[in-house]
Amino acid sequence: MDALFQTTYPVESADYTSAGRASADIKRKLKQLGVGGDVLRRVAVASYEVELNLVIHSLGGELSLSVYPDTVQLVSSDRGPGIPDLEMAMREGYSTANDEARSLGFGAGMGLPNMKRNADDFEIASTVGVGTTITMGFRLN
Amino acid sequence: MTVSDLMNLIQARDLTPSLPKDREVTCGYSCDLLSWVMSHGAENMAWVTVQTHLNVIAVAVLAEMACVILPEGIDMEEDSLNKSVSEGLCVLSSPLSAYEICGRMYQAGISAQS
Ligand SMILES: Nc1ncnc2c1ncn2[C@@H]1O[C@H](COP(=O)(O)OP(=O)(O)OP(=O)(O)O)[C@@H](O)[C@H]1O
Ligand SMILES: [Mg+2]
After folding, report:
1. Residue B113 forms part of a structural domain
2. Which pLDDT tens digit goes with each residue over A60-112?
3. pLDDT grade, residue B114 (50/70/90)?
4. Cβ atoms within 10 Å, residue A127
5. CA-closest candidate to residue A101, choices B85, B87, B27, B35
6. At CA B69, angle to CA B67 and CA B74, rounded to 5?
7. Which residue does chain B place closest to A102, by CA atoms?
8. Is B53 part of any domain?
9. Ligand 1: which atom is nearest the Cα of residue A114?
């Protein structure tokens, strides 16, 4: 099915000052397209968490938004370093965030579990030395 | 109660004086870990935190909160305040501790969940 709307945001590593911009814009775009309520809130939480993980943990990557008649899809893909143990990374409380990130209030180890809880479909794939891809789907109504 | 009523309740200073203070506050939360706040944040919430950087504003705006409250007289950096004004998010600073701010809000009938 063709997307009604598609856009991609580059996200830089360690760029804390613009962190959150892509998710704010995603929320704005979805509102304009008439998406609201619970779905909008869940997409906002998940997009923020996935965007911040790109900033904090990746070497840089991109976040893309696709809107279909019946679903919203978010795809995050990065250039590394990859996640060695996905099961561990998905656990609440597990975090490898550095001191700088922790001092800003990141590193609770809640981001990936938050994404999984908020998305209707959640898939994560990662190869060490290559990168991580996360695909999330949110059903509209 | 409105943000303006809340200011009186917790003796707060207004760090975003250019914004209207008539928005309703319906629930409260206190935490400094942003992912916890992301998962518990709700519309019209008053969020008490000692964090003052730009991402605080991003989280509060995404959750459509009513205001951010800094305890113990903490100030917020100008970058963050500029962003909160442009996003229409009120920021207050109270001389009270986070514990006392939450205690007063709870007593005044602001619930834990909206
Ligand atoms: N894009 C990524 N690239 C490399 N590692 C990642 C990536 N995303 C997550 N991780 C790893 O998975 C761990 C758990 O991620 P999660 O988002 O759950 O917690 P966190 O980012 O450490 O803390 P929080 O999200 O609560 O601020 C991270 O600490 C990191 O080790
Ligand atoms: Mg995270």
Report:
1. no
2. 999 999 999 999 999 999 999 999 999 999 999 999 999 999 999 999 999 99
3. low
4. 13
5. B35
6. 140
7. B33
8. yes
9. 18
Which of A114, A74, A138, A94 minimizes the C-alpha distance to B59? A114
Q: How far apart are the first and last CA of chain A?
A: 18
Mutate one of B34, B57, B59, B68 to test the A interface: name it (highest A CB count within 10 A).
B34
CB contact residues (below 8 A), chain A span 27-86, against chain B: 27, 41, 44-45, 48-49, 52
The one-character DSSP state at A14 is T
Q: What is the mean pLDDT of residues A9-30?
A: 93
Residue B34: phi, psi to the nearest 5? -65, -35
DSSP H or E segment with residue A22: helix A21-32
Q: Containing domain of residue B20, as a range?
A: 3-107
Distance of CA A88 to the CA centre of its chain: 18
Position B63 in a domain: yes
The CATH number for A94's domain is: 3.30.565.10
Q: What is the pLDDT of residue A18?
A: 85
| Count of structural domains within chain B | 1
Ligand 1, atom nearest to A53 Cα: 8
| Number of domains into which chain A is organized | 1
Domain span including residue A85: 5-139
ipTM, interface predicted TM-score of the complex: 0.86
The model's pTM is 0.94
Judged by its nearest atom, the ligand closest to the C-alpha of residue A101 is 1
Q: How close, in Å, is residue A4 to chain B by CA atoms? A: 23
